[in-house]
Design goal:
single chain, 132 residues, alpha+beta, four-stranded antiparallel β-sheet, two-stranded antiparallel sheet, 6 strands, 20% strand, elongated
Length: 132
């Protein structure tokens, strides 16, 4: 017998859950939308959807926040990567998401560039620029 799953593509989510990463009790209030799909404290989620809201994924792995991006119109979204299977997804930022966590994600590429910072100095010198 197949378990009936609510289709959150058409139904609002009123569920409360405990975050598997930070342990915070997460409620739907404060999200600013009809759907709560990640923890507003640590921004983590679970891999439960194949397509947003369908609850059809069998993986169940932790979806860790790895980046943010700005959608058309200026809306921010969090990019999540599943620790178990590597799947990527994009989720709208919720109204009560932790702004420090969001800015940390946004600044990560600048704080951890894929090259040594000394390379910038050498390139600037070679091109006749001076860095502050």
């Amino acid at each position: 017998m197949k378990k009936h799953r609510i289709d959150y593509r058409v139904n609002p989510c009123h569920e409360t859950f405990t975050c598997k990463v930070c342990g915070r009790l997460v409620t739907p209030e404060g999200a600013g939308s009809r759907h709560r799909n990640h923890c507003p404290n640590c921004l983590s989620s679970l891999h439960v959807d194949d397509t947003p809201g369908d609850r059809a994924a069998d993986c169940g792995g932790v979806m860790e926040p790895v980046a943010v991006w700005v959608r058309k119109g200026g809306e921010w979204a969090v990019i999540h990567r599943c620790r178990r299977c590597g799947a990527l997804s994009s989720n709208r930022v919720a109204g009560d998401d932790n702004p420090v966590q969001l800015l940390s994600l946004a600044a990560r590429p600048l704080a951890q560039p894929p090259f040594p910072l000394e390379l910038l100095e050498r390139m600037a010198d070679a091109m006749g620029y001076s860095l502050p």
